[in-house]
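assembly run, all chains below
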Amino acid sequence: MLLAVSFLVYGSILLLPGDPVTAILGAEGYDPVIAAQLRQQLGLGEPLPVAFGKWLERALMGDLGTSVVLSTRTSVSTLLLQRLAVTFELSVLAMTMALTIGILLGIVAALKRNTKVDVCVSMFSLTTYSMPAFFRGILLILFFSIFINIFPSGGYVGFLVDPLRNLKLMVLPSLSLTLGLMGVITRFTRSSMVEALQKEFITTATAKGLPERTIIFKHALRNALIPVVTISGLEFGALMGGVVITETVFGLPGIGSLLVQGILERDYPVVQGATLFVTVAFVLANTAVDLLYTLIDPRVKLGER
Amino acid sequence: MKAVEGLSFDVDKDDSLAIVGESGCGKTTVALSILRILRPPGRIISGQALFEGTDLLTMPPSELRRIRGEKIGMIFQQPQAYLNPVLKSGPQIAEVLEIHRGHNHHKAMEETVSLLREVGIPSPEETARRYPFELSGGMAQRVIIAMALACSPSLIIADEPTSALDVTVQAQILETIRKLRERYQTSLVLITHDLSLAAAACAKIIVMYAGRLVEAGDTDAIFKNPKHPYTQLLIASIPRIHSTGELAGIAGSPPNLVNPPTGCRFHPRCPHVMDICKSVDPELTAAEAGHIVACHLHKGV
Amino acid sequence: MLHLLRHNRSTLVGAVLFGFFVIVITLGRAVYQVNPFAVNTSNKLAPPSITALFGTDLLGRDLVARALLGGAISLYVSVLSVAFSMALGVPLGLVAGYTKGLVDELIMRVMDIILAFPALVLALLIVAVLGIGINNAIIAIGFTGIPVFARIVRGVVLRISELEYVEAARALGFGNLRIMVRHVLPNVRSVIIVQVTLSLAAAILTEAALSFLGLGAPAPLQSLGGIVQEGFPYLQNAWWYAVLPGILVTVAVLGPNFLGDGLRDLLDPRLRG
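ok done. output:
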C-alpha cells in the first residue's frame, strides 16, 4: 500500500504537461546546471521502474531531493523536519480535543436523545462540520482575536522556546480543526451509544442492580466506542486536509503550508516530499487504528467461534 | 394497548410458580415489570409488586437498585445476548458481588469461581477468563444463573431460561436450577410457554392468555383437573412418548391486543364457547380450594 | 419521492436550504442587476450600505454581485465533480461487484490506493500536476470522490446478486447485462441518491478549500472560496468581505448534509437514532 502510494506520488510528476523540468523551473529560472541536476534527481531519461527504485532508495535514506526554489537551496527533508514539530503539535492537540469533547457530547446526546439538548448538539455539530475549514478559522479569529483580543491570530513560537506563548498561539488553530472533526465523532458516538443502550445485556446490567454510571460507562460505552475508533481513523484524513488549510490561515510554518507553498511556487520536489509525508502519516495512522481495533474488540482478537 | 391486565399472584418463600402462556400473552412484560426494567414505550400504569412487605413499584430507585441482583435475581432467554460481549464472563459475575457485597475484585473473583463450580461448569477458573462468545449456549446460561444467584437472592425470576437451548441442555439447566433452589431455598418464578416444563419445575402454575389470568392453582390440581378450555387444550397438545396419531394443536392464533375480542378473550378459539362468552368478560372465581379460573363454564363451586 | 420530503424534518430542512441556495444563485443575478466586474477604485472596501448591500471589494466591485457569481461557480464545479466521480465510480463498482474475482480485487485495490490519500491532499497533488484552472479543479475533486461511489455500488451489487431472484433470473437464461439493468440497478439507485447528497457537500467544501488556497477557479471568475481568500487580509477592517462568502458556502453545504442525513434515515432505519 505504501509502495503504491509512493509510486503514485513519484509518478505524478511525469504527468506534468511537456517536459517536467522546464515546467518546474519555468522559462526564467532555466539554468542548465540546475536543470541537469533536477533531471538526474527526478530520474528522468531512465526507465520508470529504475527511476522509481532509485528515488525510493534515496527517500528511505532520508533524501527527498532538493527544493527548487532558487533562493534557498535547502534539501526537502530538512524543510520537512523543520516544520514537523508544528504540524505534529497542531494535529495532536486537535485530534485529542476532538475525541474527548466529541465522545462526551455524543454520550450526552445519546442519554438525552430526542430532547432539546440532543437537538442542539446535533445542530451544532452539523453546522461546524458544514463550514469550510478556513471559515471556522476566520470566524474564530474574528471573535477571539479581532473583536475580543484574547488570542493571537497567527505566527508561531516553538514549544521549547516559550511554552506559554506557544500554547496561546495554538488555541485558535487547533480549535478550528477540532470543531470540524468533532461533528462526525459526536454523531457517530451518539448513534453507537443509542444502539448499545438498547442491547439486551444492558437489561441484564440493570437487573443486576448496577449503578447507572457503571452501566453507561463500563457496559454501554465499551461496546459503543468500537465503531467510533474505526471512524477516527478516517477522520485522520480530514485532519490532514484541515491542517493544510489551517496552517495557511494562521500562518503556521508547518508541513501543510509547505505543501501549498510548493504548489504555488511550482517547487515540485517539495510537493512530492510533503505529499508523501502527509499521505504516509495517514496510512500509518489508519494502520494503527486497525491494530487498535483488533486489540479492543475481543471478538476480533480471538476470532469468533 | 394493554399488555397485561388484572393480574395478581403470590409466591411464598421457597415456593415455585410458573407463568405459562403463548408468545405475546404478556408474561415477559410481567417479569420485567416486577423489577421495573420494562423499556419504553412500555409503562406500568397501576398495580403493586410487594416484595417482603414493600412495594417495588413505588420504591425510590436507589433502594430498588439494592434489591435488584441482591434480593431478586433474573435469568433471561438468550444467554449470549444478555451478556456483555466485550467483558469476560468472570468479571460480569464478580461485579454483582463487588457492588452489593462490597468485596474487592480479588475476593469477588474467588467467589465467582466457586459459584461457577456450583452451577456445574467443569473448569470454572478457565471459564471465568473467557468471553461470552467463546462459551456454548448452555455454559453461557449457567454463567447467567451464577450471576443471578451470586448474592443468594430470595427470589429468582427466570424468563424462558431454556427456550434458546438444545433439548438435552434444557434438562441439565433445569436440574441445576432445581438443585440450587433446594440449597438456597430460593423462590422461583418461571416464565415459559412450555406447560410440561412448568410442571416439571414448579409447584404452582398460572395460565395467562391475551394479557389476562385465566387459571391458577397447584400444578397437580391443574393437570388433574384443568378447568379452563385453554388450559385443557394446552395439556392436550403436549406430545406424549407413547401416543400415536396427530398432535393436537389449538386452532386459531393469539388475539391482537390492540383490538382484543369482546367478552372473554379466548372465545374465538374456544371449543365450548357460549353466547355469554362473546359479550361478558368472565371473572376469576374459585373452582376448588386454591384453584381459580376465569371462565363462564365454572361459576363457583 | 415528495412524500419523503414532507415526513422527515431533516430532509425537509435540507431540501429547503439547498433549494433556496440554488434558486438564489441562479435567479439572483437576474434580480440583482449589478455588474460583478464593475471596478470602481474610488469606492474600495466600502462597508455595507444601501447602494452596496454587502459592501465592495478591494477593487470597488459589489460584493453581493460577486458572491452570487462566485456561488454559481462553486456550484458548477462541485456538481460537475460529483458527476465525474459518479461517471467513473458507479460503473467501476458495478463491474467489480458483478464480476467478482480478480477484476474485483484489482478495482478495489486501486480504489484503496486512492483512498489512502487524504482527500484534499490528493486534490492538491492533481492540481499541482495539471495546473490551476476550472476543469482541472473538477477533475481533481472528482477524482477523490470516485472510490466512495465504487464501494457503495459494489456493496449493493454483492448483496443483491446473492438474492434468490437474481439466481432465478440467471437460471432462466437472462443475460448478465439484462439482469444488471432490471434487477440490480433499481436497488443501487437509492444508495446512490443518498451518497450524491453527501458527496456534493464534500465537493463544495473541497472546492472552497482549493479556491481559498488560490488553486481553484482563477480570477476574475473566482468561486466563493476565492473571494474569501481575497477578503482575508482585510479581516480587521472589512470583515464582511470574507464572512459573506464563507456563510454562503456553509449554507450551500448544510443543505445537502441535512438532505443526505434525512434520506439516509429514511432509507436505512437501522441508523435512526
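The radius of gyration of chain B is 20 Å.

Chains B and C do not touch (no CB pair under 8 Å).

not gonna interpret more than that til we talk
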